[in-house]
Amino acid sequence: MMIQSQMCVSSESENRKFSKTDYLDIAVYGRLQADGTLQPIVFELLGKARELADQTSVKVSLVMIGSHISRYARDLFRYGADRIFVYDDPLYENLNSDIARSILEHFFENYKPSVMLFGDNNGESDTVESVFRQNKAAFACRQAIFSIRSNKDLDFSNDSQHPELVHISDFRPQLVSVPGGIFQPPVPNLSRRGELILCEQPSNLSHQEKNTTYKKLLDD
Fold first, then answer.
1. Residue 2 placed within a domain
2. Which Gene3D superfamilies match (predicted)?
């Protein structure tokens, strides 16, 4: 399989000041399928996230967005997540890139992951690109070769074809999309437990929902 990589950094982001020590977890975007279950690639990402987290003594966070998904989320700790952040609201049933971006921005601001892994699937690229451009962040596309340092900087030094990827470590969170079939999914541990966090709706989406309801009343 040929893996394409690129480094995407906005010029404004180079002047952004922050403390890397404020950013901790290795997070995974748990994109759902039409039937409300996780896409298969998410389990591969959890396996890689577990590896990175164990090397840096931090937690694995799984972020899920959908409607009526909290009960399903409780069964997913067995795949290596320490914390599962659930954004559960009827507004998210028909998820689009704008809603996903707003929610992930809320997650970044409030929970500050050091790394965020995304599956490189159809329909995912718009969401990820929107997220990293809005946050003036760095994004490594379709990466299969990376490790992590003790300070939680991602290390792409083994990818000799794309030396520019080293600069992703200057940013937080570090966003990486990963193609399927690269990493092994974890073996389920049925005794594993974790923390389920029901997240509030971002304020800008609450405003959007009120506007939608008002428009519907006018239309009726």
1. no
2. HUPs
